[in-house]
Every structure is written in C-alpha cells, then in structure tokens.
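Figure 2 data, in text form.
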Amino acid sequence: MNLRSDIPLFGVLIIGVIVLFWMNLLLGDVPMKTTDVFNILTGGVADNSAWSYIVESRLNRSVVAILAGGALAISGLILQVFFRNPLAGPGVLGITSGASLGVAVVILGGVTMGSFLGNLGVIMAGVIGAIVVLLLLIFIAKFIKNSVTLLVAGLMFGYFTAALINVLFLWANETDTREYVVWGLGSFEGLNSTELMVFALLIVILSLFCFLLVKPLNALVAGVDYAASIGINIKTTRLLIIVLTGILAAVVTVYCGPVGFIGIAVPQLVRVLVKSKNHAVILPIVFLAGSFLALSADFIVRMSSNSLPLNTVTAIVGAPIIVWVIIKMNQRNVSF
C-alpha cells in the first residue's frame, strides 16, 4: 500500500494546517501578539479586552474553513472515483444548486420564514432545497444504471435550478439581490458559536461515515464490473455516495455559499502526490489537503481586507491546479 511513503505528506499537511490556522489568528487588519492570542484561547486576559471578540471571530472562521474545505475535498474524491471522471465534484449532481435555490427562495423570493427565523430560515430553506434535489436523484437512480448518465442528470438539475434562480431575480429588490450575490461569492465568515457547533457536528459525523465507502472505492477504481464481481452492492454504494456527498455539499453550501474548485482540484492533486491506492489512506490526506487549500484561500481573503471574494481566490488557485494535474495524469495514465 506504500503507506510509509505517504507519511511525510501526511505530516507536512498537518503542520501546514496548524501553521495557517495560527497565522489566521495572528494576522489581519488588527495584528495580534502570540501571547495575547494564547491568553485569550486559554481563558486569560489580553492587553485589550476587545481583542477577545476579534480572536473569537477569527477562530470560528478558521474552523469553518478547515471543516468546509475538507468536506468538499472528500466529496469530490468520492464522486470522481464513482463517476470515473476527473471533473466530477460536489456541485455536479445539482445538490449544491438545490441548496442555492432554497436560499434564493428566502432571500430573493421574500418567503415569510426568512423574516421570522432570520439566518435559521435561510439555513432551513437551503437544506430543504438540497434534500428535494437529493430525493429526485435517488428516485432517478432507480431507473439509471449508467453512472455517467446520472452525472448528466445532475448537471441538468443544476441548469434547471439556475434558471429558476434567474426568474427569482425578476421579483427581488436591489437589497435582496445584493445579499444573495454576496452569499454566492462564498465566505467562511459569519457563523456564531452555536451555528459553528452544529456545522462542525454535521461535517465530522458525515465525514466519518464516508470511511464506510473505503472498500467500495478501492474496488471501483478497477471498474464497476470488477466491484460487482467481488461482492460490492453497486446500488447500495451508489445510494450511499449520493446521500453522503450530497448532504456534505448541501451543508457547506448553506453555511458558506457555493464554494468552487476545492472539491475538484484537491482530489486530483492528492492522487498525483500519494503513492498508496488505499482510500483509507487517501481520504484523510484529501481532507487535510482540502482544509489547507481552504485556509490558504481564506488567509488571502483576510489579508486583502476581505475585498477579494472567496470564490475568486479559489478559482485563481484551483483552476491552474486542475489544468496541471490533468496534464500530469494523462502523462502518467492515472486511473480513477
């Protein structure tokens, strides 16, 4: 399995995530001293009492980036293996678009629950939109045997929901339109401690459940026919993949907006770097790599005084990675 050869990469990613996490706490519009940040995190007193709010905001934002980046990355990995397509990602099944439609209904359509429940109403609407698309995909999957055909169906859901969102723009006022556009740019900022706890719990539980797919993923690398020949239930596996990756993508989208490129770029880059073919090794490395890229992107956003949108940074970083990795994979004939 070449596990030992991947230990250095695993170690580098852990150190990188820790360093970036600490840099995100220290640096920004208001630079902090290491001692002050450490005192605040351990319940002590800093030189300026107002700094505790700044550190809490940066801490929450960094934790969200770690979890969201990791979740998008492992979702992309699983989908790329299953569909045997290097361009498959969390948004391709239309579930991210479903969540976006739910959010748009509240923000642009002025649905009542958004006014009464505030952020909770937006979150509920986004989850409902994602679940509706997810249920439609599960229903369609009963009649579709070809995974690529299911991928195309997901893309059509994405186009359809995008069209509905464009219709909602016709009724929205300028303020609501701006709010939705800003949400659509993506951000790891804005979660309070309660929302962060719920978000973290969902991401951790769903990510752990993804390890149930290790054996099927190892078999699917060799093809669906081989996986079926060694006893893998393809229908059950497909259902698990749709549900797990769909809910992971929906949760991240609702809380952070439709963050792009991480779910596509990171799995491809990791597959070039790792030696092991065992997904029990690849999954945690992909999660760490996704966290590292998300933290890096958020650090750039913060150092620009939040003038750069998150999706702009992920596109600048992610697009060249995708092009480079595809070229490398074609040269090495790497399979999914």
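Caption note: Residues 3-332 form a domain with the ABC transporter involved in vitamin B12 uptake, BtuC fold (CATH 1.10.3470.10).
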